[in-house]
Design a protein that fits this description.
By secondary structure, the chain is an alpha+beta fold. The chain has one domain: Glutaredoxin (3-Layer(aba) Sandwich), CATH 3.40.30. It contains 10 helices and 7 strands. The strands form 2 sheets. Strands 3-5-4-6-7 form a 5-stranded mixed beta sheet. A two-stranded antiparallel ribbon has the order 1-2. The chain is globular and about 45 Å long. The relative contact order is 0.20.
Length: 241
């Protein structure tokens, strides 16, 4: 059974078990998740053949050339609370959270030094473009640093319906990354092993869809909340008490 098959099976089991929570739980499954665009479908055949393997389960991933790349983080490394989120840049639920809830998490908890915040890639929405978006963001991280990565990630979420190499290039220029390098990394799948390592780590932790949050290693339960901000902030407050 492939990683994608396992994700889809777990997502189906989750949907049958939690009923009304599914809308908040987010995106799961491949091309049929309802979040792909005509552009994504039409150009999916341009994708090079996917490679397999590459994940070690460690906090640091390794690129195809052996270079290492750490988990994108914000906040102090010795914070009392660590928030980890597994996301797909094409997931509409992830985009809504990042554009509306995450700024409050960052303002209320990260900027004060209360938490360490980690992003993990978990591509599930589209077999081609979910991976390409994650690799583009990791290219920016590798070439111009963490600050540029977080800016680039936010803009990817804001433009998630534009699945194109040109988008990756234009956004790269906005954060002072080399568009040619980002394009090359995407087409050659330079950082795919890093993304695969994140996905495999998420599967091991029981991640079934995106976004999925963990606060100090415990998965956040969205039941009883109408937004991910409410669910995550409650879990953070509880951990800080």
């Amino acid at each position: 059974m492939t990683a994608q098959d396992l994700i889809s099976r777990r997502a189906f089991l989750a949907s049958t078990a939690v009923g009304g929570v599914v809308g908040l739980a987010g995106c799961a499954g491949g091309d049929g998740a309802g979040n792909t665009t005509a552009s994504a479908t039409a150009t999916a055949t341009e994708s090079p053949t996917a490679t397999t393997g590459g994940g070690t389960g460690s906090p640091t991933g390794t690129g195809s050339d052996g270079a290492t790349l750490p988990t994108p983080t914000l906040g102090p490394s010795d914070a009392e609370v660590t928030v980890s989120v597994y996301e797909d840049f094409l997931c509409g639920h992830c985009a809504h959270y990042n554009l509306n809830g995450f700024p409050e998490i960052r303002s209320n908890y990260v900027d004060s030094g209360s938490i360490r915040y980690e992003h993990h890639d978990f591509p599930v929405v589209h077999d081609t473009w979910s991976w390409r978006s994650a690799i583009a963001a990791r290219s920016v991280q590798a070439t111009v640093g963490q600050d540029a990565y977080w800016t680039y990630a936010k803009r990817l979420f804001a433009k998630r319906q534009d699945t194109s190499i040109e988008l990756y290039r234009s956004l790269a220029g906005e954060v002072d990354a080399d568009p040619d390098v980002v394009e090359r990394h995407v087409l050659e799948e330079e950082w795919r092993p890093v993304v695969e390592a994140d996905q495999e780590r998420g599967i091991e932790k029981g991640v079934q869809g995106t976004p999925t949050f963990f606060v100090n290693g415990t998965e956040v339960d969205p039941a009883g909340h109408d937004s991910w901000y409410g669910a995550v902030s409650e879990a953070i407050d509880s951990a800080l008490d």
